[in-house]
Amino acid sequence: MASELSTLARPAQEGSAKKPEGPLYILTLSCDDRIGIVAALANFLVAHDCNIVESAQFNDHDSGRFFSRVAFTPLSGETLDALERDFAAVADKFGAVAKFYDTAVKLKALILVSKLGHCLNDLLFRNEIGAMPIDFVGVASNHRQFERLTQNHGLSFDYLPITPDTKPQQEAQLQALAEAKGAELIILARYMQVLSDEFCTRWSGRIINIHHSFLPSFKGANPYQRAHARGVKLIGATAHYVTGDLDEGPIIEQDIHRVSHKMTADDFVATGRDVEAQALARAVKWHAERRILMSGQRTVIFT
User: How many structural domains compose the chain?
Assistant: First the structure.
């Protein structure tokens, strides 16, 4: 059982809230829970003259796993590659999966969309004002509705039409496009196509989807109208990683908004769009900031 990392972290100067000088790196780690993990991690960073800026940890008693995320600044100018190489011995000792990231290198993400553009528009606006630590490499769609919107934000738009007969070929085009653009994440911003098991497996942990939280109720078309007809009192949205099981991947974020009988079906739709956009944006941001670790079918999120 690990102790608090903060007890071994280099203390920040009193009254200082300045952004740390130099590069800001992130280390994520997961392993079986054992005594000494936190001490080994903190001692390594101190020995390499690294100032711990932010730290979080979680002991999953159900699985017996330990999870940690540490943001730190190397004060002596050590490179990320050197730190990663030297940390390998610590990781091996504890059987840990450890990953290092440079926050200056933005995650590359490809957005997919169909005929509903509220999530796309929200992501593009957040990106334009600098609220997303992401390099959006483009937008692809099986419809042309949002070609101009995408191009107005300075991004490329790829039209990839699909029919039941051309689904395998369209997915091959999608895979080639993602590879050509160096995408590390695919965002389904209301992309209304079911991806194949093969595609989901290839991109495991790297596709984020958003949908309303009525499921498994009100499947199919017009869910908000049917929810209105049934007098639903809560509208919600779920952002999750995509797996071969439709809409059942590990949940990242959920949100709700209370509604009432005074609202129309159109009000339900508008409310649902707002909730979906916000939940998706948070999930994508947390992924890009390396705040999400997997614990079986659940997510550990250090926010």
Answer: 2
Query: Which residues are registered as beta bridge partners of 210?
Result: 239
CA proximity to 149, closest of 161, 162, 163, 136? 136
Residue 179's alpha-carbon distances to 84, 125, 212, 241, 255, in angstroms, are 26, 25, 30, 19, 32
**Is residue 81 located within the same domain as residue 215?**
no
Is 197 found in the same domain as 113?
yes
For the whole model, what pTM was predicted? 0.89
pLDDT tens column, 93-111: 999 999 999 999 999 999 9
- Tell me, what CATH number does 148's domain have? 3.40.50.170
State the catalytic residues: 247
At 224-256, the pLDDT tens digits run: 888 888 888 888 999 999 998 777 899 999 999
Residue where a domain terminates, one of 102, 130, 158: 102
Q: Are residues 142 and 23 in the same domain?
A: no
